[in-house]
Amino acid sequence: MNHINTDVRSHTISVLVDNESGVLARVIGLFSGRGYNIESLTVAEVDPREALSRITLVTSGTPMVIEQIKAQLGRLVPVRKVHDLTVEGPHVSRELALVKVVGTGEKRVEALRIADIFRANVVDSSNESFVFEIVGKTDKLDAFIKLMEPLGLIDIARTGVAAIARGTDPI
Amino acid sequence: MAQEHMTGAQIVLKALVDQGVDVIFGYPGGAVLPIYDELFQQNHIKHVLVRHEQAAVHAAEGYARSTGKVGVVLVTSGPGATNAVTGLTDALMDSIPLVCLTGQVPTHLIGNDAFQEADTTGITRQCTKHNYLVKSPNDLARTMHEGFYVARTGRPGPVVIDLPKDVLMTKGEYLPPAKVKHRSYKPQVKADTSRVQEAIALLAKAKKPIIYAGGGVINSGPAACQLLTSFARTTGFPVTLTLMGLGAYPASDKQYLGMLGMHGTYEANWAMHDCDVMLCVGARFDDRVTGLVSAFAPNAKKIHIDIDPSSINKNVAVDVAVVGDVAHVLEDMMKLWKSSQAKPDPKALDAWWKQIDKWRSIDCLKFENSDTIIKPQYAIQRLYELTKDRETFITTEVGQHQMWAAQHYRFDKPNQWMTSGGLGTMGYGLPSAVGVQMAHPGALVVDISGEASFMMNMQEIATAVQYRLPIKIFILNNQYMGMVRQWQELLHGSRYSESYSEALPDFVKLAEAFGAVGIRVDKPDALDDSIREMIAVDRPVLMDVRVDQNENCYPMIPSGKPHNQMLLGPSAEGEEAIADEGKVLV
Q1: Nearest to B342 by CA among B492, B266, B237
Q2: Shortest Cα distance from B185 to chain A (angstroms)?
Q3: CA distance B289 to chain A (A)
Q4: Residues of B in contact with A19 (CB under 8 A)
Q5: CA nearest A77 in B: which residue?
Q6: The complex's ipTM?
Q7: How close A100 comes to chain B (CA, Å)?
Q8: Which residues of A touch B (CB under 8 A)?
Q9: B10 phi, psi to nearest 5 deg
């Protein structure tokens, strides 16, 4: 009790929930009501037969706060499982972004060249614009977006992080 | 398979009967008329018509807290549901099992801002353990049974079931409770054996142990209270209780140190501060209990038994966390204590008790009595002496009178004490007494009240009169919001901003206007006779006890201070007792 760890760290938490009405509102309300951060949140149904959805959220806090977040999530009636992927072992996480860049001439060529380096796909183009699709870890997307800023970046849509544990076991 | 088909309203009634419900508290309105029509045509369930929906919830809380059963509320859509919100929040904070049925506009009108429409599931999401909107009569029976299951299991709490009017009027299939199983919610009841072993190992080595128990013991049931008592007696450890835990351990027992926390006893708080091993049983390290968290029991190894994992390490980091139901855990601990022949150092324990007796000798609850004016503490003491030999249930409102009641009324059994602990809801006690009296028709039910709290839900006297519930409202009338005034005295230079009650009604005439009995007493020597008269009258009684206006509630841990810096009385007062950082706390 004398040495409480107060380091704030980012954690990726995976939550398996019954896909029923209001479940996302419960999770979000929990975070806003108790003053926790949500850095990113994604949700989609993953098992239609069992009607299960997976919520992946990235949050930050001290170890005590993260423990609380997990316990509070676990207390919600429709929540089946809560796993802190950051502490439970290796996991992969990916995010997708759609990035719209508007420009002509050399800037347009440069944008295309950088997109190639980042393995981003062009999913829409006009004479003066591209929409790039890029998939990767959050920091890769951040780096790509930063490079696009001086090249005519005007719009971004990001999905937030989806993550899953490595290896053979499900959560 | 041929299933019974009936209307939604009939399904609701059948589900209530199958869940063993005998009383519900409610108020009709357009959206719930189909249920009221079914209620009219049956004899299994008694309905108590309250005068405000908030009171329906508090009445159900009183019923639930005094019986251990789920309390049931029935209110209409819109304002019916929003009026219930305070009660639901109260029940959530104090872990009281409730099912609250709310009417809703028909499904095709939801979202259209229809008359008396409110987003009930949205509004109550944060003040319920769980809530449901039922969209088809075929889901109704399952939802009702699931709602009762969720409300009473694990850490109990309120559940709202929102019922659109068309769902109540169309036919659907009924399922009995046995056919309904929740697909994901299964609270952990039995604890990990290794955690129990760690707890016993710590306790066996304790030199200055303390057991700190709360409302979770009462929620776990009479068996848990019995086990707590036998565990304490076997180990010889001292016991202190939280406000919500009063009655979980007999107050008359010599190992009992009284309530702890902000207005707890000197001995309980000092023992908490100085202990070396703390066993927390079904309590949650609430800020009224801990005082300054960074100086809370600084030298103690802490063991925490709780059915709710989110209570553990929330406010105070503990060394051993035992997740499980109190009765199950204590049973395991008792067995292991005996089989391992644990025996803490008798010399150390003896020295610890000597120290505790020294703290006790301060006699922190003493007060200067008077021959001319009734001291509020004296009024509670006399009430206790004159009611202790009969079956008595006490409810309270919130404020000074509540703390004096907690300090001076002594409970030897669980479920006799109903108070709003977590939320601190003024206006809780009177409707709660209505619920208690419904559950215990022959018992004496007293709402210890203040004049300000009483007026927040005083319309419920009409309910008591209608159902001939002989509840007693024992008002400690000091013409102030006493606890507000006390804090203004301690923290704000005695500037009594808006805490004086300028225009109080004549409570005797008020009682008579409602058809109840009014008694006024302002002399100490007339108090006993007045209390006897109050008990003897077989009708609702409003008793106006005129008490000393200036009395403050002591002892007190000032905000932002640790347990060992209690104020014992007025002589210790002064603004310097509370530092600036303490003043921002509530």
Answers
A1: B237
A2: 6
A3: 18
A4: none
A5: B185
A6: 0.90
A7: 36
A8: 1, 4, 18, 21-22, 25-26, 29, 33, 64, 67-68, 71-72, 74-80
A9: -65, -40
Residues of chain B with Cβ-Cβ distance to A64 below 8 Å are 313, 317
CA-to-CA separations, B503 to B455, B480, B499, in angstroms, rounded: 12, 11, 12
Whether the CA torsion A10, A14, A15, A20 is positive or negative: it is: positive
**Residue B312 sits at the chain A interface (C-beta within 8 Å):** yes
Is B133 within 8 Å of A4 when comparing Cβ atoms? no
All residues of chain A having their beta carbon less than 8 Å from the beta carbon of residue B302 are 1
Q: Chain A contact for B293, CB < 8 A?
A: no
What string of DSSP letters covers A31-82? HHHHT---SEEEEEEEETTTTEEEEEEEEEE-HHHHHHHHHHHHHSTTEEEE
Tell me the whole-structure pTM to 2 decimals: 0.95
Instruction: Inspect the interface and report whether the beta carbons of B125 and A67 lie closer than 8 Å.
Output: no
Phi then psi dihedrals of residue B142, to 5 deg: -60, -45
CA proximity to A57, closest of A38, A44, A30, A75: A38
Query: Tens-digit pLDDT profile for chain B (586 aa)?
Result: 446 789 999 999 999 999 999 999 999 999 999 999 999 999 999 999 999 999 999 999 999 999 999 999 999 999 999 999 999 999 999 999 999 999 999 999 999 999 999 999 999 999 999 999 999 999 999 999 999 999 999 999 999 999 999 999 999 999 999 988 888 888 999 999 999 999 999 999 999 999 999 999 999 999 999 999 999 999 999 999 999 999 999 999 999 999 999 999 999 999 999 999 999 999 999 999 999 999 999 999 999 999 999 999 999 999 999 999 999 999 999 999 999 999 999 999 999 999 999 999 999 999 999 999 999 999 999 999 999 999 999 999 999 999 999 999 999 999 999 999 999 999 999 999 999 999 999 999 999 999 999 999 999 999 999 999 999 999 999 999 999 999 999 889 999 999 999 899 999 999 999 999 999 999 999 999 999 999 999 999 999 999 999 999 999 998 889 998 999 987 765 555 677 777 787 7
Cα angle value B323/B324/B327 (rounded, 5°): 140
A29–B125 C-beta distance less than 8 A? yes
Distance CA(B534)–CA(B528), nearest Å, equals 10
Place of tokens 């809530």: B131
